[in-house]
Amino acid sequence: MFDLIIAGGTVVDGTGAKGFIGDVAVKDGRIAAVGERLDGDARRTIDATGRVVAPGFIDPHTHFDVQLLWDGAARPALAHGITAVVPGNCSLSLAPLRAKDRRALVGMFQQIEEMPPEAFSEAFEWTWEDFAGYREAIEPGLSINVAPLVGHSVIRLWVMGEAANQRAATPDEVAAMQDLLRQSLDAGAVGLSTSFVDVDENGRPVPSRFADFSELDALSAVLGEQRRMLQIVPEFYATDITIARVDQLAELSLKHGIPTTFSPLFDNRLAPENVSRVLTRVEEQFARGAQVWPQMQTRPIDISFSLLRPSLFFARFPRWVRVLRLPLPERIAALKNAEIADKMIEDAGPDGGMAAFGELVVRAGEAPEHLVGRTLAEIAAERGQSPARALIDVSLEHGLDVAFVAASRGHDDTSRIGPMLASPFVHIGASDGGAHLASFATYGDTGYLFSEFVRGSGALSLEQAVRKITSDTARIWGLKGRGELKPGFAADVVVFDPDTIARGEERPEFDMPGDGMRYVRDSSGVETVVVNGEVAWEGGRYTDAKSGVICPLN
Amino acid sequence: MSAAAALSCSPTGLDDAVVEAAEVVAGHDGAAELMVRLRHGNGASSFVTLDPAAGFDLLRAAGADNLAALAGRPWRQIIRDL
After folding, report:
1. ipTM for the assembly
2. Predicted model pTM
3. SS3 for A7?
4. Separation CA A372–CA A362 (nearest Å)
5. Residue A406 has pLDDT above 80, yes or no
6. What range defines the domain where residue B16 resides?
7. pLDDT (tens digit, 9 = 90+) per residue, A107-125?
């Protein structure tokens, strides 16, 4: 008898093969059978008629390291059909970490994740120092699978202490880092992450940025012993340097026989050749036998700002620039000055800023609840003002601490990005799930892939899109027996409605420790999520299943 | 990213480079950033992306209070005044 049969759905098995109407049977946490009509009884049958049955989605770039200590579902990732996440990106993981270094690491994590301080002081107990200890701390509570990276910055911090973000390492220190990396890989780490870009809470470069190439080469040699992943954050704002990093990764990949990946890679109107130039070099390096996977996110990038800090959002409006660059007291005084405010409004255009500011949406923060989620055009109409006037007045009424978001202001041209995502050399990822909590939602990219690029533009077929975020990801990262609906593989399964799967609207959620706020997006169209054979999310609710594991590796 | 660091990203041949265009773009972390496209004397183009602090420094150094005023300005002259 099977444990579960998901019957009558369109089976899209993750390989890219054409979907077919059929059944998927599960037993003992694994796929037991897949076929057009399966015989045999099951303890439970789920009717998937009219739905797609696919392998669970895999998110290869997240920062759920801290959240997993109290939320084993990495909410709301699981609700979007994601059954495996890779935390520990960008050189930062929670282990290995000596007790004396915790404060330093918390600062770096807060910079990236924007996690409230209570998360580190109240939400969990630090019980570990080494990577095996961190694994033991999270594994019992997991309802999602995890393939954790170990961070280069914390390895440096362990070995070099305060010198980690001051200088290059000595040969003895490099050897000690190699030992520590080897221990972490033996404890289940999927690879090593490093960054050439990130800074800590004081704006100082994170420790990994002080490594010279010989250090990265030595650590890659350890990765080569087990053919594990090297993830980097390159200088993505400069095409030429990114291409140089592609070449560097290719050398490490060829020399040590390792897969490598870098993120993010963005499209941009002002530099429309950026992605094509990088991908051309990636393709050349693949032709040499190297594995260098660029990660590209599906979602557009939003701009968020308040008048508390000067934002370049106003760079097209000279009078706004002049006022917003003033020190805060003078800035508030200038905004209250009727003559100056009138000139700023005039600067915003003859329509009172309707075109420039009308679509801005008020976000949570100090803004009153009745304004949150509404456009400035709506608020201005209600107040009988122009949008530019409303922007100034609403801000002044709340000490300038009112956040606005301008949606889809980068990486937002579907006609260009669709073919990029479909490229066999592009790895769909870079969601940053669990990071930038107070700035924007990093969830729902998989739903957006289907709504925008499958149903919308048709840049990818349903089968292509599923493959991109299931078996391709599992293969690139060496996740053993995942990413396909195939007998013997882990029973990670998502059942979704192909006509409605999407990401929900961004909304504030106060579910972080200390009632901390983060932006989230709910899923839509995802009906059932199975993790290692147990139903973990169904009918809009999380279950009590704790069937997630640290992913076994090839 | 500091202005100095960003400028180090630029290719050689800065003496001939002029600002071709500048545009506000969405940065990775949701902040508005300034992307400046340069046209070099040999006809090649390149770009640098500046975070808010560096972007405002650049506008100030160029004596510009809006993006359009950057167009056509010699890059070398701007960064000399940073």
Report:
1. 0.80
2. 0.92
3. strand
4. 5
5. yes
6. 3-80
7. 888 887 787 778 888 889 9
Is B20's Cβ below 8 Å from some Cβ in A? no
Check CB contact of B25 with chain A, cutoff 8 Å: yes
Instruction: Tell me the chain B residues in contact with residue A266 when contact means C-beta distances shorter than 8 Å.
Output: 28
Kindly state whether B63 is in contact with chain A, defined as any CB-CB distance less than 8 angstroms: no
Q: What is the number of other CB atoms lying within 10 angstroms of the CB of residue A255? A: 13
Distance CA A349, CA A389 (A): 12
Task: Read off the pLDDT of residues A528-538 as tens digits, 9 standing for 90 and up.
Answer: 999 999 999 99
How far apart are the CA of B62 and the nearest CA of chain A, in angstroms?
13
**Strands of B32-39's sheet, edge to edge?**
B18-26, B32-39, B45-50
Superfamily per CATH, domain A64-302+412-480: Metal-dependent hydrolases (3.20.20.140)
Residue type, A179: D
Averaged pLDDT score across all residues of chain A: 95
The helix-helix angle for A152-160 and A213-226 (nearest 10°) equals 110
pLDDT (tens digit, 9 = 90+) per residue, A382-405? 999 999 999 999 999 999 989 999
Cβ-defined contact of B31 to A269 (cutoff 8 Å): no
Residue B52 to residue A322, Cβ atoms within 8 A: no
pLDDT at B7 (0 to 100): 44
| The pLDDT of residue A246 is above 80 | yes
Considering only CB atoms, B32 lies closest to which of A241, A312, A439, namely A312
Residues B33, A270: C-beta atoms closer than 8 Å: no
Domains: count for chain B: 1
- For CATH 3.20.20.140, the residue range(s) in chain A are 64-302+412-480
Contact A302 B26 (CB under 8 A): yes
Taking CA atoms, what residue in B is nearest to A309? B52
